[in-house]
Amino acid sequence: VQLVESGGGLVQPGGSLRLSCAASGFTFSSYTMRWYRQAPGKEREVVASISSAGSSTNYLEYVKGRFTISRDNAKNTVYLQMNSLKPEDSAVYYCNVRPWGRNYWGQGTQVTVSS
């Protein structure tokens, strides 16, 4: 299993970023995909999830209405559109999948929201 995140960077408060996670090594269209984040000194938390077919999504309460998770099963890629970013959103963002009952993670992509 390989998960490769991209799209992070430095953005001003109120700005937007779109994260991507390219997946391989498993049947992408069969599994729920998740985005997590971890800020310095804090525990990793789930930000959003999307069902295998993309018909169901769930969000951390704090990001509802600002973040949108989506997926393209033809491209084996999951996305996280982040709008109205706040400094509190600064963290390393990780892609996650759990095939065969085991957690797999990408290397993470840094998101920094600062003026």
Structure overview:
The chain has 115 residues and is mostly beta strands. The chain is built from no helices and 11 strands. The strands form 2 sheets. Strands 2, 4, 5, 6, 9, 10 and 11 form a 7-stranded mixed β-sheet that branches. Strand 9 and strand 10 (104-105) form a beta hairpin.
Largest sheet geometry: 7 strands, mixed
Terminal-residue CA separation:
37 Å
Principal-axis shape? globular
Q: Roughly what fraction of the amino acids lie in strands? A: over 45%
Number of distinct helices: 0
State the assembly state of the protein chains.
Answer: single chain
Helix/strand order, N-terminal first = EEEEEEEEEEE
Q: Any low-confidence stretches, pLDDT <50, length ≥5? A: none
The helix content, as a percent range, equals: under 10%
- Radius of gyration (CA) equals 13 Å
Number of strands: 11
What number is the mean pLDDT?
A: 97
Secondary structure category? mainly beta
Summarize the structure.
With 115 residues, the protein is mainly beta. It is built from no helices and 11 strands.
Question: Which key terms come to mind for this protein?
Answer:
four-stranded antiparallel β-sheet; 115 residues; mainly beta; 11 strands
Topology:
Blueprint: E1 2-6, E2 9-11, E3 17-24, E4 33-38, E5 45-50, E6 57-59, E7 67-72, E8 77-82, E9 91-97, E10 104-105, E11 109-113
Parallel strand pairs: 2-11
Antiparallel strand pairs: 1-3, 3-8, 4-5, 4-9, 5-6, 7-8, 9-10, 9-11
